[in-house]
Amino acid sequence: MSGALGRALLEQVGALARRAGDAIMAIYRQDFEVEFKADHSPLTAADLAAQKVIAAGLASLDPVWPIVSEEARQLPWEQRRQWTRYWLVDPLDGTREFVKRNGEFTVNIALIENHHSVLGVVLAPVTGELFAAAQGHGAWQQAHEGGAWQRIATRALARPARVAGSRSHGGAQEDTLRHMLGDDYQLQPLGSSLKFCLIARGAADVYLRRGPTSEWDTAAAQCVLEEAGGAVLDLHGQPFRYNRGESLLNPEFIAVGDSGIDWTRKLRDAGLP
């Protein structure tokens, strides 16, 4: 992604994420109903309001690229397989956390180019924190709208390691983590893609995810983490890729801050995958 395109597009998408966040917060502050989709995941008016804002905003950009979003009808693989560049969106990542009103939910907008996440914006609407990255431009954090931008970076693996864990999707993975990190790791539960951002800004080291996620859950934060110096790997140690086939489900993965470590060996020694 060229320098001028990357910077300008990142600013536009960041502003769009904030508008979607405003739509979410207007509903968060009042009573709202919760519906459930076919996969039993929750859906609220906030998901749909953010979807509407983002879809309109991306459609107004030039050039216009296709959009894959959690809250939109998915196009068939025969059509998607021709794409070299498209938007991958989760208008409200962490709807379960939204329903719990714990603030740990995000707006995720990513640009995918040739199967790789090359631009990512993650907004935490409750705090106003915005994380943004574009390939070759580094990763940045803005504490609130209008605030100064600060460059963020991952850290060397700490001892004891700090593990970012899922707030609503905890799993029995303690033995694996001990094998990889030692007995005295510290666990910090957190909702949504904020776990990746915690690692990207050097406040955690690892996030191991066993169980299903979708491509829109990870793409934006993957770009942020990679540009901060980290990596998102499947359990064979291979970097994540997108638009791989008919299914939009991800393989199980590990997100790490210290990319100088041989995580492939650690995964293999721990008996994974």
Give descriptors for this structure.
three-stranded antiparallel beta sheet; seven-stranded mixed beta sheet; alpha+beta; 273 residues
Describe this structure in words.
Helix content is 32%, strand content 25%. The protein is globular and about 50 Å long. It has a seven-stranded mixed beta sheet with strand order 3-4-5-6-7-8-9, sandwiched between helices. It has a three-stranded antiparallel beta sheet with strand order 12-14-13, with helices on one face. It has a two-stranded antiparallel sheet with strand order 1-2. Helix 6 runs parallel beside helix 7. The longest helix has 26 residues. The chain is an alpha+beta fold. It is built from eight helices and 14 strands.
> Main sheet?
7 strands, mixed
Oligomeric status of the shown chains? Answer: single chain
- Helix run count: 8
> Structural class per helix/strand content?
alpha+beta
Nearest-integer average pLDDT = 94
**Percent range of helical residues:** 25-40%
- The CA-CA distance between the termini, in Å, is 33 Å
Unreliable sequence segments: none
Spatial order of the strands in the main sheet? 3-4-5-6-7-8-9
Number of strands: 14
The radius of gyration computed from the alpha-carbon positions, rounded to a whole number of angstroms, is: 18 Å
What string, H for helix and E for strand, traces the elements in order? Answer: HEEHEHEHEEEEEEHEHEHEEH
Roughly what fraction of the amino acids lie in strands? 25-35%
Estimate the global geometry from the Cα principal axes: globular
